[in-house]
Structures are given as C-alpha cells and as structure tokens.
Structure prediction request, 489 residues.
Amino acid sequence: MAYDATAGRELVEGAWEAQIIPALHDYIRIPNVSPEYDAGWAEAGHMDRAVELVRAWMAARPVDGLTVEVVRLPGRTPVILAEVPASPGAGTGAPAATRHDDPGDTVLLYGHLDKQPPLDGWRPGLGPWEPVLDGDRLYGRGGADDGYAAFAALTAIEAARAAGGAHTRCVVLIEASEESGSPDLPAYVDHLAGRIGTPSLVVCLDSWAPDAHRLWVTTSLRGLIQGRFRVDVLTEGIHSGGAGGVVPSSFRVLRHLLDRIEDPAAGRILLPELAAEVPAERRAQAAAAVAAGIDARDDVPWAAGPVGGDPVELLVHNTWGSSLAVSGLGGAPAPHEAGNVLRAHTEIAFSVRLPPPVDPRVATDAVRRALTEGVPQGARATLEVLAAEAGWDAPPTAPWLAAALDEASEAAFGAPAAAIGVGGTIPFMAMLGLRFPEAQFAITGVLVPGSNAHGPNEFLHVPTAKRVTAAVATLLDAHAARGPGPPGA
Prediction:
C-alpha cells in the first residue's frame, strides 16, 4: 500500500488542531528556562513539569509498539526517549528492530524543550509565559524554539503509518539543555548508545526557514564561543572628577581589548584563527536562495534602515563568516540613575559565531590571548568561557534524500525543497556528525521571518509547523522505501 500524502496531511492537520495546539498552550505557560539562565532550575521544578507534559502527550499517541521514557543522569537535565519499531512493510525494516540490542535501520528525530529567558520588549497583550493564538501565530516563549518538535516528530511517525506508508525504526530524542549549549547531551548519547543505534537518517526540527513557501533544509551551522569578560580598575567607584585622568576607565580598557578581536568601524573579525574558506557549493546555495527572494536583511527590525551590500555576500557572511555580539552589560547603573562616578568595573556577556570548520578550541585560545594578555596598566581582565561549540557542515546529500526532500516539500508546500546555511548553532549536529559520519541529515524547522526566537514576541507560525510535520511524514516513508544499503546510499 502506497503512502497517501493527502491523507497524511489531513491526519497532521487534525492532530495539530485537536491535540498539539492545546498542548503547546500548556507548554508555553511553563517557565522552564534553560539551566544557564536559572541556576536553581532543578529546585524550581519547571523543567520537570515541561518534561512530564511532553512525555504524557507522547505516550498517549496511538502508535503500535511506542515506548516513551524519561531518562535521568545524576546532576543533569533529563531527556525524553521515545522508540517506535519499524512499521510492517518498511523497505529495510528488520523484525528485530524492536530489540534494544539490534536497533536495525534507525531514523533519529531530535528536538529540545528548554527555553531562552523571557526578555523584555513584548508587545501589549503578549508575554513569554502566556500563550496567545492570533490568527496563524501562536505567541509565547518556546513554542517555535523548540517546543513543537516533540509533538511534530511523533505525529509525523503516526501519519506515515496511518496514511498507508512505512517507516523504519524511529527514535525521538528530546533534550532539556540545548539553549545552554547542550552540555548534558554527550553523556546521554553515550549512555543511550545501544538504544539509539547507528542512524542512517537524522531529522532535526530546530532550525530556520527563510520563507514559509517550501521546506528549507539547513546545510551548515556556525560554531560558538560564549562567555563573560570583565575589566576591573577599582575596588569601588569614586568621584570622576577626583580620579579622571589618573584611573583608566574600565569601559575604555574593555573596549580597547575587544578591538583586538573586531574592527570597531567595519565589524570585521581580525583574528585569523576565527576564519575559514567558504566552499563553492555553499556560496552557490546562498546565491540560489537570494535568487529565490531571500535577503538576510529582511528579517531584521532595523532602527535606522538596513545596511548596504551585496545580498549574496551578506548571506555568506551570516552563515560562513565570524561575528561578535555583546549581549549583556554589567557594572553600570541605568543612565537615569548614574552619578558622576568612575566605575569600579565593566563586564559583558558575549558570543562569537564561528565558521563551520573552525576548531572552537583553537578559536577560544586566540580569543583568550587577545583579551587577557598585555592588559593596560591599572586594569585586571578576567575571561570566563561558558561554551565553545563546533559548527557543522552537512555531508554530501545522497540521491535518494535529495529526491525525497523535493517530494516531501512538493507534497506539503507545493514547491521543491531549498537548501541554505544558517548562522546559528545546534551543538548536537556537530556531535552527531562526528559520531555517525555515514548518516544523512535533514535539518529543518519553523523559524520563519519575524518569529524572533530568543527575542520578545516569539511566535510559532502554525501553517508552517503543520507543513513541516507533513513533510517529515513523507520523508520517513521515502527513507523506508529506499531499500537496504549503507546509510548514505
């Protein structure tokens, strides 16, 4: 019996309207901020509430052979592991696929349920922890990044089977520390290695979509250095008139040291250890995306109008260039509360995005040398590195997957799939790329323009989420039908 894409879409539509959207309302209300932003997350219990909500929803789905388990390692955030045996008739499905010691031909579907902090700036009537469905948009923290993933993954499996298709053995892995750089995930991947198996296909539902008109597949992700940097000049603030010209400004010293990393006029990163050559294929994909109407400047709330430049080069730099962002400032009062005081210290939270091939350890060493060696007299510089994550560049796409992605996109969106690099970081992908070098990857998501993940007014575009879910169902059936062979065949 062949997979009926229309029936699959109808099942997905019904599940989203009747089950997923109400569950996401409940999920958004839980302030389960990632551990990096809430040191007391375990005591607060919000993460456990979110995990239980998602686990219970998954466990209630009518999928034959489904098992759902919360796995906990001491001192770490939990993960949810769902296993579904191969459906009858799967092209590679082995009868032993239900056994943990013989995982067969596996599809690994990934998402996360921890959230970014609430952040100020939500529009009147909106807020991070109160879901608001306004037309096609479900507002609230974490709905699009990445609460929908667990619901979509299991619904896609259900749709593939119920609409007459097939799927090989599927494992759904939902973590709870991605927004902190996935520090807990490697331990779980090791702990669950026998149950995860050796995936021939990895589906990640935590990426961007430059438009809502097709299935977008992520071909690369940048790496990341995240840290805090502080310059101290005094043990306490003193009168600026009494010490100005003698005591150096902590802000000036910090700015001077940052200028060793970034050209302050052009924003160009100066350290060669943070650069990499752009492959011709990735540059061609950027040009094709621009030709399809994608402009990296469009999804930006400019205060004074967009920057100029060639749109292809801007997109290439966003996905294969390095960049510095200062995301937090400390050591200073609000301007309206400031007196004439020479402050004791200035501290920043920062992130450096790295081209996909750059070794984050080498890059971190270069940043550390730039910021902490040769510090001007009268000042002390302290660097704390919170995360150093590798980027990821997709392996060559197997012919079957290229055809399947187009088929899935045509069935769900009415247009072929498209490929693009992404400027963000998903640490799990680099880890899996090293662990499973022969696997194929389908990295996609629902973060359409304006959805503003990590920022105020985050929303999930429900029609895109439904179409991505339906596309994954088609992809699972195509993967099962490709026949036996090595993962990349």
Residues 92-102 have pLDDT under 50 and may be disordered. The first strand starts at residue 67 and ends at 71. DSSP finds 14 helices and 18 strands in the chain.
